[in-house]
Amino acid sequence: MEFADKNILIIGASSGIGLATAQLLRRLNANLYTASRTHSPELAELQTTFIELDVTQPLGTALDGLPEVLHGVVYCPGSIKLRPFERIPLADFQADFQLNVLGAVQVLQACMKRLKKADGASVVLFSTVAADTGMSFHASIATAKAAVEGLTRALAAEYAASNVRVNCVAPSLTDTPLAAALLNTPEKQEASAKRHPLQRIGQPQDLAYMASFLLSDHGSFITGQVLPVDGGMSKLK
């Protein structure tokens, strides 16, 4: 894969999957524009064009400085708030929807004209294995991510004629700061690994490689898809 002279925007690039994707794309010579609420030391090392951005708030003019042509957008923000359904306040459902769905909506609305000018652009969104496979205590995040999957297919259909591809990656539990509370002991790590047919949990790099493939010319015939990167959890017993 080669990204020389390609402008890629990564939202949520300061840690986890977003950071791993930025690191990989930097090695592949992409022109990187990154946005998140904080500018982490690891992200600073990549010397990207950084934009301070909180996607739960109106974007205003935050993305106006992007180049006229964008070849790709990766939207990585996510949330993990697991609790019994009867104990999830409505505000948590609203917060998950705001971050995962409406944040992506406003970013893509701000970027679509730039993507259409690329004559072959790619959008990568992120869902979760829990949107397709029922899991206890995942009601809020599964609801929001299922909406992301619907958005993926709708936008893929709408912008296919403009040669803008839209796909979604659906990971299982991945070893990121977001999942730290679920993996903070060797016992939890072992139990989580055993739930996967491949007997391990996901790593940020696993998702970064898939996102980069979908952004690349190698993925130019793929659109409207939700692609599981989940160690076989969603399909195998």
Automatic annotation (TrEMBL):
<feature type="domain" description="Ketoreductase">
    <location>
        <begin position="6"/>
        <end position="176"/>
    </location>
</feature>
<dbReference type="InterPro" id="IPR057326">
    <property type="entry name" value="KR_dom"/>
</dbReference>
<dbReference type="InterPro" id="IPR002347">
    <property type="entry name" value="SDR_fam"/>
</dbReference>
<keyword id="KW-0560">Oxidoreductase</keyword>
<dbReference type="Pfam" id="PF13561">
    <property type="entry name" value="adh_short_C2"/>
</dbReference>
<dbReference type="GO" id="GO:0016491">
    <property type="term" value="F:oxidoreductase activity"/>
</dbReference>
<dbReference type="InterPro" id="IPR036291">
    <property type="entry name" value="NAD(P)-bd_dom_sf"/>
</dbReference>
<comment type="similarity">
    <text>Belongs to the short-chain dehydrogenases/reductases (SDR) family.</text>
</comment>
<dbReference type="InterPro" id="IPR051122">
    <property type="entry name" value="SDR_DHRS6-like"/>
</dbReference>
<protein>
    <submittedName>
        <fullName>SDR family oxidoreductase</fullName>
    </submittedName>
</protein>
